[in-house]
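Record type: monomer structure entry
Structure origin: computed from sequence
Chain ID: A
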Amino acid sequence: MIDKTEKIILGVDPGTRFMGYGVLLIQKGEMKVLQYGVINVSKYSTQEVKLQKIYERIVSIIEEFMPDEMAIEAPFFGKNIQSMLKLGRAQGVVMAAALSRQIPIVEYSPKTVKQSVTGNGNASKEQVASMLDHLLKMKLDAAMFDATDALGIAVCHHFHGTSIMATNKGTKKGWGAFINENPDRIK
């Protein structure tokens, strides 16, 4: 039986070729990694198939771990509009998978994640991974930066105090709250 001090957070670092994910169990304030990895869709030739595979894999992770909340890296602005569009679609598919299972979602900017994990909003991926080793009390696979970034997003969410219920009462609102407050805007 899960008590009220327990929570499972799914962190996701969206990508169009490699998508990182990390599943954290928070138990009495302690963090434990349940699983982390990379969804590799680079071998698929069309964007549609990539999105389908991302959706299917995220749904399978959700069904396996039954996360209470999802934390995802927020979109960032770049110069290549086609890349941004593809990334936005991948983020949307991940969000749709979570929302299809009524899992609330909170977004964090890359700078916020780095600041939360390392104390430096401009930290490198290597610095984030190194600090996660320390915080999570385990040696993470240094070659899997997409996965360690996803764990960083989940850790950031935990550090922000962060019950979705609490954020919905304050100024931050998740996508679940938006849908509940705007059912006429969803088709």
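Annotation 1: Confidence is low (pLDDT under 50) at residues 162-172.
Annotation 2: The first strand starts at residue 6 and ends at 13.
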